[in-house]
Amino acid sequence: MDWNKRFFLLLILVTVFRLVYLLIAPLDLVADESYYWDWSRQLDWGYFSKPPMVAWVIALFSRTFGSCEAAVRLPAVILGTVSSLAVFFLARRMYDSRTAFWVAAAGMASPGAAALGFIMTIDAPLICFWSVALYMFWVVLEKERYLRTGKREAGEENINAETRRHGDQETVLSPCPASLRSLWEWWVLTASIGLGLLSKQVMVSFIALMFVFAVVSREDRRLLKSPRPYLFSLLGLSALIPVILWNAHHDWITLHHTAGHFSGSRSIFIATLAEFIGGQLAVVSPFTWLLFVLVSVLLLIGFKSLDRRTLYLLCFSFAPLAAVALLSFRQRIQPNWPAAVYPAGMILLAAWGCGNISVPRLDSWRPFFRKGVFLGVLMALLTYALPFYASAAPGPWADRLVARLQGWRQFGIDAGGSLRVVPNPDSTFLLTFNRQLASELAFYTPGQPRVYNWRSPGSLPENQYDIWAGPQVGWDALLILQETEFWRADAISGYFREIERLDRPSLIQEGRRYSLYLGRSLKKWPQGSDE
Fold it and tell me: How far apart are CA 526 and CA 458, in angstroms?
């Protein structure tokens, strides 16, 4: 069996496994999933913290297959499959099918990949469109180089026809005729960038990295004199125009929220750096991540002698990872922030592991590459098994973990039961003081009613619920409050005719107990929300 067939067999097996898993896993929607699902019920050009792509995608699948957990998570499986295809085709185009297979295997073999291919958050569409853009930009570079020189790259030599290995057979591709001077590659690249920008703001760094590569690669520096990269970059950025207009109408709320991520912290820089490294070791798997970093650092020492393929991969992997690492000296870094560096990073690592790139001081360690992949497979399988075995693990951490992964469905059912017995259930809305609680209740309460989250009068918006219009004046509210926050009922009593505690059993989730209150006849909603 050749390496192409091995890859497609692996891809099919992993995709089928993920599809089956999303149907049988005892895992409720995590906070972000239910939050983005609630966004999808009110489609817009922008949201409090992110561009609209995640809401659009979830809306497409939820309205097609119904608002269930499988429908919310199905796009993560599909987007993950597309990402693997794009990375495989790029690695095969740059090197060979054997290397491309190991790139795909390394990319799938990690706890982060397991989560990314199952849990539907903003990273799933981002990595998909980033991977496609990574492939298309290399296609653009190849074509631009051929049109300029009449030569293409094959192995370490430039020849008039490109040779690539597929399995055990050599296929010689004829030179591209001059008539193929269309710009379709640029258009697909632009579309990928635009869709990525609509997925997550970090996609703008892809455009910057394109120009960084053009600067450091002597063979591609002439691209800077062409109007194409500037024109098509602007066209890609134009996808953000509706998002920018939405933000302008909402006091630049996404910009302020994003800036808050880079405000620094009071933590000691050694602690934040160690936390960043530990997070990457856990998400990617130890051998794989350490080898990638070591290979990258040693390659950079001989920067001037690197070929353009290696430069390309370093520009889109280790360069942004180093920037994030530097940022970790001043603040905490979320483990998923560097996710976009790994499509190119896994190609670079696999190319070294398969002997296409030489790092003399490290080449004797090549056997650890495959060992790292196998360790990643084990860690990914343990990640998938987590919802099944966590409750049996010793220690309080297991109970807390299970509470985060499970229990929201029953919580919503219990809240719905309480909602049915209030005096006026048809004119009573659910009210919380926590964004996660609001979104989980919105999804799991029978009938999936609109749930409102209280915004303190005069305060700045803290989540999407603070932007949306409030409930209808005159309606009653079923308040769900942590028992330790009973004082909140008194704090908002002026907004209702009266508030009384209901004689109902407490709701319990994640070790917390929630009491129920009934607010009768809403007088007004806090100012600041859109009416």
Answer: 8
pLDDT tens figures, 167-193: 433 333 444 444 345 789 999 999 999
Average pLDDT for 34-44: 97
Does residue 416 share a domain with residue 274? no
Range of the domain at 249: 3-385
Any idea which residue has 């409030």 for tokens?
Answer: 470
For the chain, give the number of residues: 531
Please compute the mean of the pLDDT values over residues 136-158 and round it to a whole number. 72
Burial bucket for residue 192 (CB in 10 Å: 0-12, 13-18, 19+): buried
User: In whole angstroms, what is the distance from residue 269 CA to residue 326 CA?
Assistant: 10
Distance from C-alpha of 111 to C-alpha of 128, rounded to nearest angstrom:
17
Same domain, 212 and 248: yes
Mean confidence (pLDDT) of the chain: 89
361 CB-near residues (< 8 Å, 6+ apart): 298
Would you list the DSSP string of 209-258? HHHHHHHH-GGGGGGGGSSHHHHHHHHHHGGGHHHHHHHHHTTTHHHHHH
> What is the pTM assigned to this prediction?
0.91
Structure-block tokens of residue 272: 């934040």
Distance from C-alpha of 399 to C-alpha of 190, rounded to nearest angstrom: 47
Supply the DSSP symbol for 195: H
Both tokens assigned to 385 = 């098994």
Pairing of strands 157-159, 152-154: antiparallel
Distance CA 36, CA 41 (A): 9
* 321 and 461, same domain (yes or no): no
**Enclosing H/E stretch for 513:** strand 512-522
How many helices and strands, by DSSP H and E, does the chain display? 22, 10
- Tens-place pLDDT, residues 263-289: 666 667 788 899 999 999 999 999 999
Mark whether 356 and 419 lie in a shared domain. no
